[in-house]
Hints:
Layout: E1 2-8, E2 15-20, H1 24-33, E3 37-43, E4 46-49, H2 60-72, H3 77-87, H4 91-105, H5 110-115, H6 123-135, H7 138-195, H8 201-215, H9 217-236, H10 238-249, H11 252-275, H12 280-286, H13 293-307, H14 312-318, H15 324-336, H16 339-395
Antiparallel strand pairs: 1-2, 1-3, 3-4
Helix pairs in contact: 2-3, 2-7, 3-4, 6-7, 7-8, 7-11, 7-16, 8-16, 11-12, 11-16, 13-14, 14-15, 15-16
Amino acid sequence: MRFHVKAFRDKSSITRLLVEAVSADEAARVVQRQGYAVLGVGMGARWTLRRPRRAARFPLLLFSQELYVLLEAGLSLIEAIETLAEKELHAHTREALAEIMRYLYEGRAFSYALEQSPAVFPALYIAMVRASEKTGDLPQALTRFVAYETQIEQVRKKIVNASIYPVLLLIVGGLVVVFLMAYVVPRFSGVYESTGRDLPWLSRLLLDWGTLVRTNALNVLVCSGVFCLGVAFAVSRSNVRLWIAARIWRIPALGEQLRVYQLARLFRAVAMLLKGGIPMVSALGMVQQLLRPALRVPLALAIAGIKEGQPTSHALNSHGLTTPVAVRLLRVGERSGNMGEMMERAANFHDEEMARRIEWGTRLFEPLLMTVIGVVIGVIVVLMYLPIFELAGAVQ
């Protein structure tokens, strides 16, 4: 069927495109892959406005695991994809599998079918499948990808689990401070105003804030809401997130750990590709998008050096893309001809080191955070009750 798609790209004017597709959603995806933002899809004179929504995420890891099991059970590739599509309940995933089957029925290669959906299948995955097609070991390639994703997910879970308790402490402590400053302090300020006594300047400063909140509660609430919305909007902008990330990377200790994490991810991805039969230069080029922008330029320079005949360990080390441990393992890999294994060992070493640092940092940070929150709340309470203590001393 033919669909008329209303879309725009960058700051250009709105255009209308004629697209051949099975459904309106597929027509929109075709236009989006061309770099357009879709405003509406219509058939004939009918138009339907598309509400902006977050695209459903394709379960790539689960798909790889299930496909491996079916292929090992003796099913052909098309039969395996058909089986996965039949049992799938989510429309987005089912449509992606149906598109793959359509290309496979046309006699296209599996990697070509995946390449037509770049938003679903990353370039790393497509390169791994393409390499396996030359050697005929797709199940083994899927096993390597599952192991790669599992290791990455384990590191990610360790970071998330380590941050849960400190975040909860910050939230609870922040709520307590907000309750004291927005509810308790304003009522104390009213009580002390009626006494007419002179107060210590710190208590006076705190209670002036309470008076401000009590007399301008609506204005304070509106300003607080606007501030929160402004912060949320700013964080949602990619350029702001990049600016924040750049400042975090400049923190000496934290920035170095983030760099090592990125390098470990680089080594693990390259190791997976090397084991799949992809040459070193091609493998390094495929993993560039895994790195933050500041590390992509040094990687491109390292790739150029390797093309000129430099050893991989020297090219990566000269552009700051190794660690003391990693560069020694890479030199061993160059001498033994087993670079994939050595890169994977380097990634494992740094992942384990990062796990130890996270555990140590969490044990140190949690009591410090509790101490800071307790001191802040204690200071607020003491400043509120300090005039009462002075009044009691005067009465005695």
